[in-house]
Design brief:
Number of strands: 20
Low-confidence stretches: none
Keywords: FAD, Flavoprotein, Oxidoreductase
Cofactor: FAD
CATH class of the largest domain: Alpha Beta
GO molecular function: FAD binding; oxidoreductase activity
Pfam families: FAD-oxidase_C, FAD_binding_4
Protein name: FAD-binding protein
CATH topology of the largest domain: Uridine Diphospho-n-acetylenolpyruvylglucosamine Reductase, domain 3
Oligomer: single chain
Shape: globular
Strand content: 15-25%
Largest sheet: 7 strands, antiparallel
Number of helices: 17
Length: about 500
Amino acid sequence: MSSLAMPAPEAATLARRAEIVAALRAIVPGEGTVDHETGMRPYETDGLTAYRQMPFVVVLPETVEQVAAVLRYCHENNIRVVPRGAGTSLSGGALPLADAVLLSMMRFNRILDIDFDNRTATVQPGVTNLAVTQAVAHAGFYYAPDPSSQIACSIGGNVAENSGGVHCLKYGLTTNNVLGLEVVTIEGEVLRFGGKHLDQEGYDWLAFMVGSEGLLGVVTEVTVRILRSPETARAVLIGFPDAEDAGRCVAAIIAAGIIPGGMEMMDRPAIHAAEDFVHAGYPRDVDALLIVELDGPQVEVDHLLGEVERIGRAHGATHCRVSESEEERATFWAGRKAAFPAVGRISPDYMCMDGTIPRRELPTVLKRMAELSQKHGLRVANVFHAGDGNLHPLILFDANEPGELDRAEAFGADILRLCVEVGGCLTGEHGVGVEKRDLMDAMFSEDDLKQQQRVKCAFDAGHLLNPGKVFPTLHRCAELGRMHVHHGQLPFPDIPRF
């Protein structure tokens, strides 16, 4: 396991463990409070398995009242809390702390309401992403965001990390598909933001909460937008002998005014791993493969498929294959969605990165990543959402080999710095967590980070919710809140203050 600087455990909290566990068990009785090592072991890490820490205690509430009571108790007793969904986070967002209550929301697993007239579904945060689509599919609806982990990842975790998926190019990320939230603050106050209506009045609280990585509150209910399933959806595989040509093709498709339902790219190592695992019919004699899906009325889809194939050929494509049935289309996507476990078959360990770049920079970044692979002496397999420039390089390494994890981390950091350098950002959908925390100053100035922390302070002045995540240097709220008064005059005295 790699070393990672995290907040030092509070000695007073550790000394009171038996008392704290007893108090939590009174709130969430029976199996809802877990304090023995065997029961807590599954919670010691999330999808970023390079980092592990046994929790202080695990609590699995079933009601909003229990969540509020747990958070209120922790606030009153100055105890840290780490919220957790399904644990599929790839940035260490749910990494436990040695002195923090790990609050698992997976018992909140009910679909509360499906409203086809208003095209919404209201669910608890432990409902899996795929379960939402399965619950509405019989009426011809679906939930658009579809991370590759959708069979396991929870809606609450999707909200925390602002997850996307292969169809986020056309239909948006989680933030574009969430209409309302119920949130419990660290003080135990239950708040509601938005609802079934199109827009909420006043401040855009949903924008704060979606992607807040458990730093501002604990989500207990989510209202999402459901969409009508398209009349037709077909996918085309386009293979290229050169990855840079594939990158140029992506930009050309968007420049032509075509917005596919999804547009994914895989390089040779990922293609071969996925094909060996799923047998999706991917060509093995290409260096890069695009999967482009068009959806909508059949006449439009047929026309756009022809245009996409024409653009592909103009950029050097040597392979084009259009799905001829719904089963074949699903098989094309099955290979892409299984790429992460497939790569796990060819390497003892891998680190899945997440950065976003302008589409026009795809050729440059692919070339630079190949150079970085040589520099660090580690292989990389590329699988990413090409349409919106969201890269997911998989750095292959062996944690049992001395120094390889450190080299993998250094390689990943160089990739993320490259993303920022070309005009992109550190994350697209995995969040910052601990993985990118110490790179935040590569993208944000000190003033930017302080302003972000002021938002954190407004919700959680004691920094009790998910501490040690996102911010490389944590400032005290009192320090951030200082206001300079010059000659007895406040700055901007005409601005209302509350």
